[in-house]
Amino acid sequence: MAWFLTSLACLLLSVVAVPVSSSVFMRMLTSRGSERPGSPTNSHSCWSVRSVPNDLRSAAIMGPNGLSTYYQKYTEAYGIPILGSVHVPEDAVKRACYVVRFLFADRQDVRRSYYKHFGRFAVYGQNEVTRSIPEHAYLDPFWDTRARGLGATLTAPVATCAEENALCYSTDTYDPNEDIALHEYSHALQSLGAYFAVPGFEARLKSAYSSAISRGLWANTYAGTDEVEYWAEAVQSYFNANTHRDTVNGIHGPVSTRDKLRTYDPAIYALIQEIFPCNNNYITRCGNSQTLRSQEHAQQLRMNCAGSGGTGTGTGTGTGTNAGTGTGTGTGTGGSCVDQSASCQYWSQTGECSKNQAYMSQNCKKSCNLCSAGGQGTQSGSCSDQSQHCKYWSETGQCTQNAAYMLKNCKKSCNQCSGSVGHTGSCADQSTNCQYWSDTGECTRNYTYMSQNCKKSCRLC
Questions:
Q1: Quick one: which of 209, 220, 218, 188 has its CA closest to 96?
Q2: Looking at residue 208, what is its pLDDT?
Q3: FRET partner for 9 with CA separation of 20 to 30 A, picked from 61, 231, 289, 377?
Q4: Lowest mean pLDDT among 117-126, 156-165, 314-323, 331-340
């Protein structure tokens, strides 16, 4: 079953039916090649299944080799293709499009990363097999009976599911209780989206997984396999679309809903909430097909909810050198200093304020005692980027949105090497508008620009 294997296992193994280490999988993903031109949109046309646009047959537009003529049916969500052969009914393509539309609504950065890495999705017919998908044609015939859907990688950037599961046919004897599209498409969002777009995501996911396993969580379930399956299984539970078992059976267990996940494993719950901050409701796949398509089409999804958090003011003093070392102290008050979740106090007590700083510092300020520490800060040591993706993250606003991670690991790209807290060089505003911008919260919302050009008004001297 497709969800029963990591994405790399699905694409790299041809004989042995065991998962490959997910750490190998993730190392495969760190090499970024060419990118798809253009940018994703904020719209979709899931209701309209049509022929594949000619430009998507080009390797320059849809790498690595362009879309094969096998694909004859097409729709899109945010400019990301959802595809099928002539044998796939339109309803299955529309359902797959809904899953894509739902998963990628919340964060523009994740959506953009998946788009730029040539990401797409496909459905194959109930009488087709795994290797019918051109990107998976090289696999051993073993996979034609082993899988009914695979995840996406850089070399084969398509995630798949099968018609009978997407549409909840009674003839689905493979795994009728499992939403394979949601599972496999969540793998794709992780591997080509969040992995590149969200600073520290992979490290925090691995940390949450290691912590959970060390505490005996997810024992004798598929979520315990590795952090890759841990993520996808938890996403299913978060959206109340996982298989439920009263007792664990080697694959599933009783943690099958959002409420149960929140109390059972708050670390992965918080990480999923960070990737899906809009709190949209997922329409499950089983029921009257016409009614479901109407509901999917009518649903207005909240989009682009990952913001920079509350704005605040603060004052501080410090000393330092142009080499990027120094110390600084300050005090300040945040904007609205409240908890955004009823679970914040519990998460705080279990150490999440430290383990998941990026999420908790934005959403659980009160429980993490961040209400009166708006201006605290220090800078010391080597001033460099700890990740090759820092510059990209900086350009997409992550220095502000994920300050807890970025200001520690991407100092250079976030302009922390000079002219930041503790720097005594030239401290002046480069624009007469700086004070106004500071008063309206831009020192927080547009930290990268303001820290360079409005040092005085942002009190960064």
A1: 188
A2: 95
A3: 61
A4: 314-323
Give 103-167 as a 3 state SS string: HCCCCHHHHHHHHHCCCEEEEECCCCCHHHCHHHCCCCCCHHHHCCCCCCCCCCCEEEEEHHHHC
For residues 406 and 60, the model is more confident at 60
**Burial profile 284-310: b = 16 or more Cβ within 10 angstroms, e = fewer:** ebeeebeebbeebeeeeeebeebebbb
316-332 exposure pattern, b = at least 16 Cβ within 10 A, e = fewer: bebebeeebbbebebeb
CB atoms inside a 10 Å sphere around CB 137: 12
Which residues share a beta bridge with 339?
364
Q: What is the tens place of the pLDDT at every residue in 395-433?
A: 777 776 677 677 778 888 888 775 444 334 467 888 777
Residue 24 has pLDDT above 70, yes or no: no
- 150 and 9 in contact (C-beta within 8 Å)? no
* Number of neighbours of residue 339 by Cβ within 10 angstroms: 17
Predicted pLDDT of residue 357: 65
pTM exceeds 0.70:
no
In one letter, which amino acid is 209?
Y
Summarised one tens digit per residue, pLDDT across range 336-356 is: 678 776 567 766 766 667 656
Backbone φ and ψ of 121, nearest 5°: -135, 155
Relative orientation angle of helices 180-188 and 227-238, to the nearest 10 degrees = 130
Q: Does residue 81 have a cis peptide bond before it, meaning omega lies within 30 degrees of 0?
A: no
Instruction: Identify the DSSP state of 429.
Output: B
Helix axes 90-103, 289-298, angle to 10 degrees: 40
Q: Following CA atoms 418, 424, 430, 432 in sequence, which dihedral angle do they give, to the nearest 10 degrees?
A: 140
Six-digit token string for 348: 């705080």
pLDDT at 97 over 90: yes
